[in-house]
């Protein structure tokens, strides 16, 4: 505990704060960039996880020039800071046509579509050229045209090809069902199935005479575990930059690759139930949760501070309950005796994207303050 | 749908936005203020739900001069805007002693304590007088001294009484276990038990010669349903200002008392599964969830816009899944045919406190923009 307290004291931190190990982040980026390079695919990382210009800039050293975001707001933020090739990996929200036109006039903006209705309205209202991807549903069933829906695929392809302001890029999918896989093999199987389904859909598109049809895939579990990207042109993982407990549980990462944790002050100790209460609730961690090895719901695990970085996941110290500002952590006797009120503890998040979204800045373990959207 | 679209167009809204019906808010405040008046208890509403100076000011017309918050940050925000009697209903975070001293020097700041350790350190570091409450655990088991822990209660009481800068106010509890009650009678029973346990604890305190010991209670379910507050000096409900789906399910409110909803653009329609996809995910609604009547997890329900306010809860249109920016809503055939892409829908939140925390402003149905922390 003393090392953590000293560190946070040196940062001037007195309330729940988001910490980041820059070395782990750089190593995570390095590994994924290398994997893309080796596989010969474009690396277009998703920036929705970190939402930070400064962290975005770290990617430039690994040759990244094109990015993915999940909202027009994020696209405008990164465009303002020098990114000029941005895919908004979210079905186009026509209500934001003014922002779309504003951005399309000055950067290479790429949009997603999965219905003729959106395409028609977009065609009427666009003022500048945009890159266009057809969103494909390869089994996740959130958005997208079914990979088997031959008619819709060809009809959308045809409409895009003949629209002067739409530049057909290809087919894009998010195999989010990889998060529901039960094993590493399960995740790899979803990857293979996804690529195979995308290649079938590409055949339909090529049948109508479109010659250049790229394939873009990209969830963190499959991108972390797969090595064979034959047939794929682009990958768009995002979460891998920080990883989290959910990814570690899935097997997408090792525990020493988790790059963010929330520092939380301890405000209470309750011996009769071996619990500590932290200033760190749903507004600091998000209420994302998962099942532990005993199928009990947990909202995070404590970790330690060792050799200048986060220690292992302490599975004997789960966050068992969250309310708006409070977290309840069950601990063993040893840790209970070690921790005092006014100490800080480190909590690894279940889902780092949602946790980081709650903050306006990161404190790196290396002593920097890094702002975000 | 057309009425909703027209309204939001007039507001200039194109992405997920938080809406509020000012009339419902005023009516909710009016009812709770009147209940407190009739019962002869001080009404010290919790401002963590709305976190807005402007909404806070609406309470002044109902005679409110003292408030509750859940963090020092909120206390500083409201103090800056003219509130001079604030209870931070969270066990004192000693790490924020500088902010505590800064505030205690200029307003009547009231703090909570449940351990001698915090009390001792506070005693050493405080520079100005603060009001002091002992936090009591009456069965929720989050924080607090057990209502039966005679020794600790008397020892804390004695230490507070003899500290020159600590002004003993009394005993304070949050019966958060009312949220787990299975029926209206269950909630009322928790209220009776809570008050009875607080009165026992008060007896222990009076036994050591402390004559003025107030009792403060205050979760929204019990404050909404109970009428008898005999023995209680102060109530601190917060959520009642907006209510939400969870409160309606518990029976604390009627559906026409829910005062906030999130407006979300529709981006996709999927006929094979009778689902629509909205731009409205965990970062817009929070991933708070509850079980529907079939014990399935839901993250919100659609409502309509009728006669200038929100319509009934549409239990045939649940938000069945949320990811970072996407929400999936299952709808019946009729609604499916009625809704188009680029329409807006209104989503009632499961837990309004967590949803509102994600926004920097409210749009009132009456056309105002109301900022918040």
Q: Which stretches of chain A are poorly predicted, pLDDT < 50 over at least 5 residues?
A: none
Q: Could you give the distance between the termini of chain A?
A: 31 Å
Give the CATH H-level superfamily of the largest domain in chain A. Alanine racemase
CATH class of the largest domain in chain A: Alpha Beta
The overall strand count of chain A is 20
What is the architecture of the largest domain in chain A at the second tier of CATH? Answer: Alpha-Beta Barrel
In helices, the fraction of residues of chain A equals 25-40%
Number of spatially distinct domains of chain A: 2
Structure, described:
The structure is a homodimer of 373-residue chains. Chain A is an alpha/beta fold. Chain A folds into two domains: 2-20 and 259-371, Beta Barrel (Lyase, Ornithine Decarboxylase, Chain A, domain 1); 23-241, Alanine racemase (TIM Barrel, Alpha-Beta Barrel). The first copy, chain A, is built from 13 helices and 20 strands. Chain A has helices spanning 2-11, 22-39, 53-60, 72-80, 97-104, 116-125, 150-161, 184-207, 220-225, 245-250, 282-285, 333-338, 352-356; strands at residues 17-20, 42-43, 67-69, 85-91, 108-113, 130-137, 145-146, 166-173, 214-217, 234-235, 260-270, 275-279, 290-291, 297-298, 301-306, 309-322, 326-330, 344-348, 361-364, 369-371. In chain A, the strands form three sheets. In chain A, strands 2, 3, 4, 5, 6, 7, 8, 9 and 10 form a nine-stranded parallel sheet that branches. Chain A has a six-stranded antiparallel barrel with strand order 11-12-17-16-15-18. In chain A, strand 19 (361-364) and strand 20 (369-371) form a beta hairpin. In chain A, helix 7 packs across helix 8 (184-207). Chain A is elongated and about 70 Å long. The model of chain A has no long low-confidence stretch (mean pLDDT 97). The interface between A and B is large, with 54 and 54 residues.
